[in-house]
Amino acid sequence: MAVHITLPESRKKSAVPDAPKHLVTPGDVITTDTGYMRGHGTYMDDDKLKASLAGVVERVNKLICVQPLKTRYNGEIGDVVVGRVTEVGQRRWRVDVNSRLDAVLMLSAVNLPGGELRRRSAEDELMMREYLQEGDLISAEVQAIFHDGALSLHTRSLKYGKLSQGVMVQVSPSLVKRRKTHFHNLPCGASVILGNNGYVWVSPTINDEKTESSGGYEQDLEPVPSTDREVIARLRNCILALATHKLLLYDTSVLYAYEASRQHQVKDLLQPDIAEKVADDTRQRLQMESG
Amino acid sequence: MPGDSRRVPGPQDSRSPHWYGKQPPQHQETGTRQDGRADHDLRPVYLHAGVVSQATGSAYIELGQTKVIAAVYGPREIARREEFTMKGRLCCELKFATFSCRRRRQHMQDNQEKDVSLIVLQALEPAVCLDRFPKSQVDVYITVLQDDGSALAAAITCAAAGLADAGVMMYDVVTGCSVRQCGDRQLLDPSSSEESSQEGENAEDHGMVTVGLLPSLNQVSALVLDGHLQQQTAVQAVKTCISGCQGIYPILKDCLVTSTRRKVPAVDPTSIRASTDGQNGRT
C-alpha cells in the first residue's frame, strides 16, 4: 500500500479579487445612527449598534446584520436534511442534523410500511426500533420548528426515508444553496442528496420503481459493482475539493467538478494541489457559463 | 484521593534535580526586569485563531514563553438534561499539560486546575449571549502547553478568541492580564520566575492580581487576588491590570479580523445571483 507523505506547507491565498468588506468582532460598534433596524448578530447598547459575532456586516436598506462565517445549521420549513438517528424515544426519534439541538422525528410523521394510513397504536411504539435504530441515516424534510429552535421532521413522501448504501460527506451548511430539488440523479452514474444542513449523501443511482412499494424502510443491501463504487468515490472527493475551496454545491457545480477530475486518479484528488486545480477549473467553467 | 493508580510512582527516596540546580538570579534593583522590560511593559503577544480543524472554533496564544491553546465545541445538545432551562450552558475545562510547568503535572485534573477552570468560566459567562442557544451547551477545552507566568490571563484571552472564532454570540470579547506586586514594585505580565520570586516577602504588599475585562463595555468579569495587599495597593494594581487588558484588546481584534478574512468564501457570479433572491441575513 503506497503512503503519501508531505511536509507542512503554508496555505496559498487564492487569487480572488477582494472586495472591501466591513469585518467586525464582538463588541465592535457598527454604527451610532439610530435609524437602522438591528438584525441577526447585533445588539443595542445605549445608542450604539454593536456586533455580537465575528463576521461580515451586511446591510439591506435599513436592516443591518452580521453574517458569521461558521454557524450551525438553522433550519427552515421545507428544507431537505440528511441526519443520523441518535436516540429512540417515546413515539419519537431524535436525529442529529448538525444543528444546535437534535431534530425530532415523530412517529406520526413517518410512513408505515405498506403505506397504510391509520392511527399509531401501542404496538407501533414497541416496533419503532424495527424501523429506525440509533446510527441509521435518514433523509427527511423539515415540517415545523419548535419554540427553542429544534426542528420537527417528516418522511411522508416516498423519496424520504432510511438511506442504505452510499457515502456521507459533511460540509458547511452555507455551501448548499436552497433550490427546488435536492435529489439529483447525475448522468455519471450516481445519485446525490444535497442536504441543506451540510450533510451530503452520495449513492448508486436510485431506480424510481423500486421505492414504490417499500415505503422507505427497506434497505437495499445488494452488492454494489466496483464501477459504481469508483464513481461514488470520485464524486465524494470532488465534493470535498469544492467545499475546501468554498464553492457553492449544486448539481451543475458537482457535475463540472466530476468532469474536470476525470483526468486524475480518484485517490490523487485528495492531494491539496490537485483538489485546488479541480476547484479552479470548475470555477472558471461556471464563470464562463454565466457569462 | 482520586489519582491515577495505573502509573508507577518513583522510589521513595528519589529527589527532584531542581533542588540541586542553580537558582535563576532575582531581578536587579536597577529598575529593569530580568528580560529587559520596564515594570509596566507587556510581553510580545502572538495570537492565531482557527488552529484546531476539528473544533467549531479555536485559538492559540503565546505571551512571551507562555503558550495556551483553546478549542471550542458547540452549541450542541446537552448530553443529560436534568432540569428545563431556557438559557444555554457554558462548560470550561482547563488542563496544564504534564510537561508545562517546572514540576511535572498529573494526567488528571487536580484541584488547582478545577479552580482555574471555574475562574475562566466566570470570566467568560457574562460575555456570552446564553439566551441565544437554549437547552444547548458550548464546551471550551483549554490546554496550557507551557507556563511561563500569567497562564490564567492567557487562558482567558485565548478562550474568548476561540469563542469568537466559533461563531458563538457574545456581547464583547474578554481579555486577561495580571500584575505581580513585590513590595513597592508593580510588575505587569509577570514571568514565572517573577511570579515565584521571594523579593519583598517581608514588605506590606506581596501578591498577585489577575483581571478579566470586557474592553469595549469596560466591565470587569473576573478578579483574582493572591497574597497580602493593602487596600490602596490593591486598587492601584487592578487599575494597572485594566490598562494592560485594554492594551491586549487591539491584538485580539486584529487576530479575529484576519481569521475572518481568511474564511471569506470565493466570490463567484452564480452565488451573487442566488443571494439576491431574498435569502439575506441567514447562513
TrEMBL record, chain A:
One of its GO terms (cellular component) is nucleolus. CDD domains: KH-I_Rrp4_eukar, S1_Rrp4. PROSITE patterns: S1 (PS50126). InterPro entries: Exosome_cplx_N_dom, Exosome_RNA_bind1/RRP40/RRP4, KH_dom_type_1, KH_dom_type_1_sf, NA-bd_OB-fold, S1_domain, S1_RRP4. GO terms for biological process: CUT catabolic process; exonucleolytic trimming to generate mature 3'-end of 5.8S rRNA from tricistronic rRNA transcript (SSU-rRNA, 5.8S rRNA, LSU-rRNA); nuclear polyadenylation-dependent rRNA catabolic process; poly(A)-dependent snoRNA 3'-end processing; TRAMP-dependent tRNA surveillance pathway; U4 snRNA 3'-end processing. It is found in: Cytoplasm; Nucleus, Nucleolus. The keyword RNA-binding applies. GO terms for molecular function: RNA binding. Coiled coil: none annotated. It holds the Pfam family S1_RRP4. Residues 78-156 form the S1 motif domain. The keyword Cell division does not apply. Keywords: Cytoplasm, Exosome, Nucleus, Phosphoprotein, RNA-binding, rRNA processing. Its main location: cytoplasm. Belongs to the RRP4 family. Component of the RNA exosome core complex (Exo-9), composed of EXOSC1, EXOSC2, EXOSC3, EXOSC4, EXOSC5, EXOSC6, EXOSC7, EXOSC8 and EXOSC9; within the complex interacts with EXOSC4 and EXOSC7. The catalytically inactive RNA exosome core complex (Exo-9) associates with the catalytic subunit EXOSC10/RRP6. Exo-9 may associate with DIS3 to form the nucleolar exosome complex, or DIS3L to form the cytoplasmic exosome complex. Exo-9 is formed by a hexameric base ring consisting of the heterodimers EXOSC4-EXOSC9, EXOSC5-EXOSC8 and EXOSC6-EXOSC7, and a cap ring consisting of EXOSC1, EXOSC2 and EXOSC3. This is Exosome complex component RRP4. It comes from Branchiostoma lanceolatum (Common lancelet). The gene is EXOSC2.
